[in-house]
Amino acid sequence: MRNIHKILYVLILLVLLCGSGLAAERSSLNSLGNSVTAPALYSPSLSQKFYEIAYDLANSNDTRYVENELAISFLIGAMNLDDNNSDVRSLLLKCICRFPERRALTMDSKAQSHFNLANTLLKQYVNENTDFELAYNAVSFLLNQTESPAQKQILLEQMIRLFENKNPAISSLLLTNYGMLKLQANSSVEAEKYLRQAYQVNKYNKIAFSRLYE
C-alpha cells in the first residue's frame, strides 16, 4: 500500500512540475512576442495539500532518506504555489537538515542548492518564538556542510550580525560556535571573548560556561 502511495505522490509532483514548465514556456514565448509575462502559478489550497502529503512522508515512524527527499520536493512545490505558508518553510528546513551524512557524501549541485535554501530559510525563520531544536539542527547542518574554517567563520559572522537581538538562545549558540572555532585556531584570548559574550547573552548556556570554567 505504501508503494502505491509513493507512486501517487510522484505522479502528482510530475503534474505540478509539468504545469510549471508549461507556464514558464508560455512566459518565454510571450516575452519574445509582445513582452507580456504569464502570471506565476498560485494556489494556497494545492500548496496546503502538498504540505499535508509532505508532512505524512516526513513524520512517518519509518521515514527514510528517499521519503525525506520526496517530502522536500513536495514542500518546494508547496512553497512555489504559496510563499506565505510558514508551516511549509519550517518543515522544509527540518527535512533539509536531516541525513547530513548522506548530503556530505554528495556535494553536487543539488546538495549545494539544499545548503543555500537551508541558509535562506534559517535566516527567515529565526525570531523570538523560534523552535530552538530546529534552529540548532539547522546551524549544525550548515556548519557541518561548510568545508574550511574560514568559510565557517564567515557564515557565523553573518548569522551573528543578522540574529542579534532576535533570539538570545540562538545568538548565544552562534557565539559559542564562533568561540569554539577560535579555540581550534589556538586563539584562546578571542575564544574567551566570544564564549563570555555567549554566556552573558544566555546564562543557561552550559557549553559556554563549562568552556569558560576550563
Proportion in helices: over 70%
Q: Give me the count of strands.
A: 0
Mean pLDDT, all residues? 83
Number of helices: 11
Strand-and-helix sequence, N→C?
Answer: HHHHHHHHHHH
Low-pLDDT residue spans: 18-39
Question: Using only CA atoms, what is the Rg?
Answer: 21 Å
Short characterization:
The protein has 214 residues and is mainly alpha-helical.
Topology (elements, then pairings):
Layout: H1 2-33, H2 44-58, H3 65-81, H4 86-96, H5 100-105, H6 109-125, H7 132-144, H8 149-163, H9 168-184, H10 188-201, H11 206-213
Can you offer a commentary on this structure?
- With 214 residues, the chain is mostly helical.
- It contains 11 helices and no strands.
- It has helices at 2-33, 44-58, 65-81, 86-96, 100-105, 109-125, 132-144, 149-163, 168-184, 188-201, 206-213.
- Helix 1 (2-33) runs parallel beside helix 3, helix 2 packs antiparallel against helix 3 and helix 6 (109-125) runs antiparallel to helix 7 (132-144).
- The radius of gyration is 21 Å and the shape is elongated.
- Mean pLDDT is 83; it is low at 18-39.
